[in-house]
Amino acid sequence: MFDPQRRPPPFSLHRRDMMLARQGRGLSRVEWRMAIFMPILLLVIGWTVWDWRERMADAMARGAEVLPIEQRLAPMAKPLWDALSALPDAAAIAVEREHAQALVAADASVPLTAQGLDALTLAWAEARLDADRQAPPLPQRLRARDLLLPDHVRLGAPLIIEGRIEDRLPGRSADSTRAWQRLLLAIDEGQFVEVLSDAPAAAELPIGSSVQVTGRLLAYERRPAEGGQEVELPVILGRVLVASAGAEPSEDLAEFHRPFVMPENILQDVDDFRLWTETRPYYYLLGQVLRDLSTPGVYEQVPDGNQAADDIHLRPHEHRGKPYRVTGYVYEGWEDRDVARDRPFGVGRVVRLLLWRRDIAPVTETINGVERRSIKQVLRLYEFAAITDQPIPPRGTLVVAEGRFFKKRAIPVKPDPERDRRNNVQRQSDRVYPWLFVTGPWRIVEPAKTYEVGPLGWVVTVVAGGLLIAGIWWWRREVSERGRQRRWLRRQAAAQAPSPAPPPPHTAERCPSSPPP
């Protein structure tokens, strides 16, 4: 009986034995073809995934994104301005004058022992005004959130702020030679500040006019407000007051209208955890980037800021002022009014863009107290301060620009514990930190359309499909041939098997005692 599983003899000229020996000698034709075909198919799949990784990331990034929403200040109740308490008299101020002058000579701020607009505060204010008029300091432009959100500005810090005069009362200080005026100023986001000033313009500017105040932060005071409320009101010591509508750049900013020379260590005092953008280093970096735009080759080979974002986040001081190329989708855009007003080093227009981008890049996370770094998909915020005359691009536009890293800008966000729980986020701060870059003009990038296949993609698809069809055809042919061989072997075995001997013919036995018929 033929047994296809039996081993053939070592040597045989029989066709059946030769076929069995050839089948058991090594890999079959199907196995050889699969051994060649599978690596090729794996290479094609790997190359396709590698070539389309950006498209895959962009496709995932196009989903609905919940970006942080900047926290808004609740409108402040209007402080009552009809019955302000009198200022300390000249005798009480004279007692503190020597101490206050020593503090000003040492460039110290308002002492912590001062309580609101007391005698020590007024003595410091008089000495500070006299010193600042001799050597005006460079002020920091501030807005309501800088003054009223946590991380208040340090008392005594020089500043510029704008608002509308809501009310005015003379500052009553017995026997004082200073003509103090107390102005209630309405500033942005429905907030109010008090301006205490002896400048002549403080008494001359009409109520309801827009004004720009240059001075210093003097104090915070609790004041009664409408509706029986109490508010904490910032008090500003006003040195210069000018009508802000059509005003020329402040004389205090004359430093930015001289020929550009980048000071050494100008970026050392930048604070990545403050709510504002430091005016002096920001304006000087604008001047540096403006010079870069007229210098060939500065941004030809710069690192990818999206990939370096984690290193910048961990060690911002090491990357400050260095050039990078950054790409992102526009979330919000606006013109920088301060730059348009001050025109530092001839820069007349800067567009600020808040961008987002979902990158596959290194990221360092602290989860349950354990810090680890891995390459994963992460959503990040970037910000451009772009020197350009381009129109603000629509939301969702993909742009790329080269520029220099300035700082991480802290933006307060509305807390949402439920959203953080759904996204498995362990929030360590109530702020987000976009990476702020001072750049030149941006370029609009046409995003790859994931639903279209390019010519190279079609070639890869056709080749992979052809190989797959050929592999299936080869496999079916081999299976069919093996079946045909097995059927032939069975027929040969059946033909060569010896025929069984026929049974002997049947003969009837006669009984000896029976008579013949």
Description:
- The protein has 517 residues and is an alpha+beta fold.
- The chain has 13 helices and 14 strands.
- It has helices spanning 15-23, 29-51, 53-61, 90-105, 119-134, 144-148, 201-204, 279-293, 309-314, 316-319, 337-342, 417-422, 455-496; strands at residues 140-141, 158-170, 181-187, 191-197, 210-224, 230-243, 323-335, 350-367, 370-387, 398-408, 411-412, 431-432, 435-439, 443-444.
- The strands form three sheets. A five-stranded mixed beta barrel has the order 2-3-4-6-5. A five-stranded mixed β-barrel has the order 7-8-9-13-10. The protein has a two-stranded antiparallel ribbon with strand order 11-12.
- Strand 8 (350-367) and strand 9 (370-387) form a beta hairpin.
- Helix 2 (29-51) runs antiparallel to helix 13 (455-496) and helix 4 packs across helix 5 (119-134).
- It is elongated.
- The model has no long low-confidence stretch (mean pLDDT 81).
Quick synopsis:
By secondary structure, the chain is an alpha+beta fold. The chain is 31% helix and 25% strand. The longest helix is centred in the C-terminal third of the chain and has 42 residues, at 455-496.
| Helix percentage | 25-40%
Distance between the termini: 50 Å
Unreliable stretches: none
Strand arrangement across the biggest beta sheet: 2-3-4-6-5
**Structural class of the secondary structure composition?**
alpha+beta
Characteristic terms for this protein:
517 residues, alpha+beta, five-stranded mixed β-barrel, five-stranded mixed beta barrel
